[in-house]
Write a structure and sequence with these properties.
alpha/beta; single chain; 294 residues; Rossmann fold; 10 strands
């Protein structure tokens, strides 16, 4: 929770109201060493992409040679057995691994064509544009209202007299308003686990991200809360590009437009969800999606 709060300590002063910030990539300096081979230009409508990405912690390589695109406005499920690297990959999409000791990355991540790891790319701005919802609810030790608008205030996205309206709008969006409308000043820790997760989702949506990352967001929720979250994610798309890590293959199949299967440190297969489940290109994918292992 301390790390999560730290992400909200600096304002996004470069954001132009009403317009998404484009990360600035510095021009090459004459006479400097040759730069790595640039990533290919993203296809039209691509929100995020990974080009020849490898991720390591110390001497241990977690993923190698990943090439993957996330079309704008779609839901992509990242699946694979435990330890295959899918969560490490997800956290790299908004630079959450930056502070992990020994973390190393090669290759390129882009957001609408901008290099997320360029020297000029502010990680705080990246994390505003690419929001994240974690496996377990992580409300801040603030009131319900202050939780929802924490990022909005930190990035100075709205005047103070609009914060109450933002809280109501986002809590209605996630279906939590009726349950908390009369106790916005109360502690979020009095809410159920499912309600806390919805509160965290409202907080993530309040800063109007371009992309929303979810790391097994329903794994600790009951079936009713899980259904509510899945319905909301479907409602949010295609307005937001969504990437979700899940061990629940049934969830991946019913929720996602596209599925990427990670296996043994590599991206084994990626494509339309129906194709990956019904006509997988690799034997490893077939065995995984049919429950032979994982």
């Amino acid at each position: 929770m301390v790390n999560a709060m730290h992400e909200l300590t600096e304002p996004d002063t470069a954001r132009t109201p009403g317009h998404n910030l484009h990360l600035q990539v510095p021009a090459p300096v004459a006479g400097s060493a040759a730069a790595p081979k640039p990533a290919p230009a993203p296809e039209s409508g691509t929100a995020m992409s990974a080009h020849d990405v490898s991720l390591s912690f110390g001497d241990k390589t977690v993923l190698s040679g990943v090439d993957l695109e996330f079309p704008a406005g779609t839901i992509t499920a990242l699946v694979g057995p435990t330890g295959c690297g899918k969560t490490t990959f997800l956290r790299s999409l908004n630079r959450m691994n930056d502070r992990v000791p020994g973390f190393r990355r090669t290759g390129t991540f882009t957001l609408f064509g901008d290099d997320l790891y360029a020297p000029s790319a502010d990680p705080l701005v990246v994390r505003r544009r690419v929001g994240m919802l974690f496996q377990r609810p992580n409300p801040f030790p603030l009131s319900i209202h202050e939780n929802v608008v924490a990022g909005v205030k930190a990035h100075r996205l709205a005047p103070r007299n609009k914060l109450r309206d933002i809280t109501e709008t986002r809590l209605r969006e996630v279906g939590l308003w009726d349950a908390v409308a009369d106790r916005l000043g109360s502690s979020p820790f009095r809410l159920s686990g499912g309600q806390q997760q919805l509160l965290c989702l409202a907080r993530a949506l309040a800063v109007e991200p371009d992309v929303l990352l979810l790391d097994e967001p329903t794994s600790s929720l009951d079936p009713v809360s899980t259904e509510a979250v899945e319905h909301l994610l479907r409602t949010l798309s295609p307005g937001i590009t969504i990437v979700i890590v899940t061990h629940n293959l049934a969830q991946a199949r019913r929720l996602s437009d596209r599925t990427a299967f990670f296996f043994e440190g590599r991206l084994a297969e990626a494509g339309e969800t129906e194709q990956v489940f019904e006509q997988p290109a690799s034997e490893a994918t077939r065995q995984y999606v049919t429950g032979r292992f994982g």
